[in-house]
């Protein structure tokens, strides 16, 4: 038995690695590679693996770990921020999908119960695939990402009532008391889990961490992950939702980042098994014999789900382009639909033929999802540019644009009012520099309006909206949003509409820099490198590098679009390898370059203490160190001055040494 399992595991890993590698060379997503590998080795392929039960177990582990890490990266605060997407967006999407799908199925079959059940199957989307794609692209917190996540959470919450309604659709009488008890149990367990995130889990992890045992910490994290997922599943909820809730409980503690780093290797090892197990469901022979029927079913599924996804996103105030992107993202069938289909087949609601058509078309939608998500930005941009939808969008923008400011001149436009946007607004307000903020979160706009912020609701990718906030007269544009596709489009439009405007863009990743500069951005600030700059500057400061040397390095890196850091040659060893001669006080350093006014001057002539208030405690000249130099000590190019004093005086001294005061 053990060798049989090991054989299955070796086959799955070997074939998956080969297929994923070959498809990667063709730039095809790894998810598709795992699905294809499953189809090849499964019972309907070459039949290497006929018993898929053990693979399905590992697949469930992969889904649990994926949703667990997503939950950790989320937080209760972020979940509350997307409550509109969860409750309103998800509710509208599920109900509308069931209604439209049931209507379409009734017109084709004439069977009301089977049609409603078909609506149940279509309503759910693949949490595993969509969240994995969003996480890989860093778009979980983008506008369309938040909508998708919210709708997916609501869909997972719907698992309990949908399962409870299956007996009624099969003709059996529902025991309303039992149904209400199960619904109450599900609500109770969710409440208990969320409350434990605040009152129980942080304290438990604190006690575990105090033992300084990494093994105990990892064991506890895994126990919480699978324990909460198992507990919620016993109350009728999906394993995926339970794992997500487990992640949320960890996210509220200060140990969430360590938990994520410890779990990631397990997640990446098992998640591929899920996609392999889905691929094993593909009956290639049946699909080839019924390709027309399956193609029609796939077209119907995509059409209905894209429409309902767009409508649900629009209903919560999302722009048309973002709504289309979200609708395309959740257009596939979900993994829990397979569970519903099996239950429906066992209850006699659907026939074996219907089950095979649904199964085949569902797997096809999953295979197509990575390609659709990859092309969703281009598709949504292209559709919104068409004449008919452009007129609809313009009507929407007119209603959104009511109350825009009067024409300004020389102001700053801030796109996005997250942490970066808010900090910039504070500085501009203190400096009395006029600014306007554009934000797509209606709740944020409403809240900040009450606080007196010049903030307006609108989509920055709209040329009309940008002109309403004075793009043609603005002096500077700052793009501080988490949506890379929208960022590129905003930069392109802004540069085309105002060739003189100075554009500063924040981006997460270095790979975005070159394209944004080509589109017209004057400065691109990648978070990855700004963080590394801050780290290395502080490290060098602790090793007593002169402040002006550090600043020169930073200026060189930024002026060269961060290319200097990519191939930068730092000194082979720091300037003060042995620092026993330094007093145990806060000091600052300054290296004298050739053209500075300090060269050839003595300390007495420069009147350093009188003009700046600092005391020079040492000067390093090559291998020599002059401690407490005399007033007649003359500086040379290359000397490094060490001085101390109050912080404000030290800053003043740096400016004085540079000749700026």
CATH class of the largest domain: Mainly Alpha
- What's the overall geometry? elongated
Low-confidence stretches: 397-402, 563-584
CATH architect. name of the largest domain: Up-down Bundle
Number of strands: 10
| Fraction of residues in helix | 55-70%
Strand order of the largest sheet: 3-2-1-4-5-6
Averaged pLDDT: 79
Structural class: alpha/beta
Radius of gyration using CA atoms only: 31 Å
End-to-end CA span: 82 Å
CATH fold group of the largest domain: Na+/H+ antiporter like fold
Give a verbal description of the structure.
- The chain is an alpha/beta fold.
- The chain has four domains: 2-385, Na+/H+ antiporter like fold (Up-down Bundle), CATH 1.20.1530.20; 402-521, Rossmann fold (3-Layer(aba) Sandwich); 525-576, no CATH class; 578-661, Regulator of K+ conductance, C-terminal domain (Alpha-Beta Plaits, 2-Layer Sandwich), CATH 3.30.70.1450.
- 66% of the residues lie in helices and 7% in strands.
- The chain contains 31 helices and ten strands.
- A six-stranded parallel β-sheet has the order 3-2-1-4-5-6, with helices on both faces.
- Helix 3 packs antiparallel against helix 14 and helix 26 runs antiparallel to helix 27 (547-559).
- The termini are far apart.
- Mean pLDDT is 79; it is low at 397-402 and 563-584.
